[in-house]
């Protein structure tokens, strides 16, 4: 594990740049254990490059925020955050709360607490430069460069988010939702909430989904749970009742009926059969 936390507000600047970073931080393979909820006092931009789970999970103002990596989250003054246990590689930088008005004036308002993004060579270069500068902030002019670099990262991330949303077709968004379902099918969630995260209303989502898939979203999720159950039947000795709970199926009677409809046999018969893998959706 490698950590670097530096308070930079007292480091002299050569330029009177209005967006001066107050603190910089980066970590490599930092293990976050279960922690208590924290109220944020400053404005922090946190970029998670990777995690052992493939995505981050935070509780933001009482709501769960799950994002695939890499992602950026914007911790604003007065918001509450709680990191769920994971191992993360991140960089972050923070500002005093009074810069928020200036950023909003420039059109750099954060309308949501965070989003995933595609890593580009441009962003990779910025991240590498951030790490190099972190250990040289007392060198002549470096703190000014860091201020500009962090501000540039904010602008790049915001512009890419806007461009990404505009360029996505409805089919691309639907397929991205299906990926989200594949990663989270054992969770309890509201489909409308997921659709809203991808910029779609209830009606527009279900209409678009029907054009891409020949089964409903509910059937799609049920299939994912059934296939996970079938895999557990073959790969483990877990009791069927425990498997039903693990895949978050709603009721044993429903599970048995749906499983037999899909595989043509009961779970017990499937476990004893010569079939090696669950059939495709």
What is the secondary structure topology, with strand pairs?
Layout: E1 2-7, E2 23-32, E3 38-39, E4 43-51, E5 55-60, E6 63-68, E7 71-75, E8 80-83, E9 86-95, H1 99-105, E10 114-116, H2 121-134, H3 142-167, H4 170-184, H5 191-197, H6 202-212, H7 217-235, H8 240-246, H9 252-263, H10 267-272
Antiparallel strand pairs: 1-2, 2-9, 3-8, 4-7, 4-9, 5-6, 5-8, 7-10
Q: Can you identify the CATH class of the largest domain?
A: Mainly Beta
What strand order characterises the main sheet?
Answer: 1-2-9-4-7-10
Please identify the oligomeric state. Answer: single chain
State the share of residues found in helices, binned by percent: 40-55%
CATH topology name of the largest domain, in short, is Jelly Rolls
What does the average pLDDT come to?
Answer: 87
Radius of gyration: 23 Å
Account of the protein in words:
This protein is α+β, with helices and mostly antiparallel strands and 281 residues long. The protein has three domains: 166 residues, Jelly Rolls (Sandwich), CATH 2.60.120.10; 43 residues; 56 residues, Homeodomain-like (Arc Repressor Mutant, subunit A, Orthogonal Bundle). It contains ten helices and ten strands. A six-stranded antiparallel sheet has the order 1-2-9-4-7-10, with helices on one face. A hairpin with a 2-residue loop joins β5 and β6. α2 runs antiparallel to α3 and α4 crosses α6. It starts with a strand and ends in a 9-residue tail after the last helix. The model has no long low-confidence stretch (mean pLDDT 87).
């Amino acid at each position: 594990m490698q950590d670097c936390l530096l308070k930079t507000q007292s480091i002299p600047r050569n330029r009177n740049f209005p967006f001066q970073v107050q603190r910089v931080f980066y970590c490599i393979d930092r293990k976050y254990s279960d922690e208590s909820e924290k109220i944020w006092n400053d404005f922090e931009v946190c970029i998670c490059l990777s995690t052992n789970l493939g995505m981050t999970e935070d509780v933001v103002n009482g709501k769960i925020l799950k994002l695939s990596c890499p992602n950026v989250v914007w911790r604003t003054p007065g918001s509450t955050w709680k990191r769920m246990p994971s191992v993360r590689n991140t960089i972050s930088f923070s500002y005093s709360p009074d810069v928020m008005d200036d950023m909003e004036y420039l059109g750099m308002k954060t309308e949501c607490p965070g989003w995933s993004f595609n890593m580009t060579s441009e962003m990779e270069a910025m991240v590498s430069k951030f790490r190099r500068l972190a250990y040289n902030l007392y060198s002549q002019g470096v703190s000014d460069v860091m201020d500009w670099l962090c501000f540039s990262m904010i602008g790049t991330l915001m512009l890419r988010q806007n461009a990404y949303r505009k360029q996505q077709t409805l089919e691309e968004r639907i397929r991205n939702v299906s990926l989200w379902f594949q990663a989270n099918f054992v969770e309890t969630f509201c489909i409308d909430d997921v659709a809203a995260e991808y910029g779609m209303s209830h009606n527009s989502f279900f209409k678009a989904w029907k054009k891409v898939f020949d089964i409903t979203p509910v059937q799609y999720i049920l299939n994912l749970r059934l296939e996970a159950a079938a895999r557990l039947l073959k790969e483990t000795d877990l009791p069927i009742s425990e498997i039903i709970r693990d895949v978050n199926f709603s009721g044993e009677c429903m599970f048995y009926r749906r499983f037999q409809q899909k595989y043509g046999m009961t779970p017990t018969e499937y476990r004893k059969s010569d079939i090696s893998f669950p059939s495709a959706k």
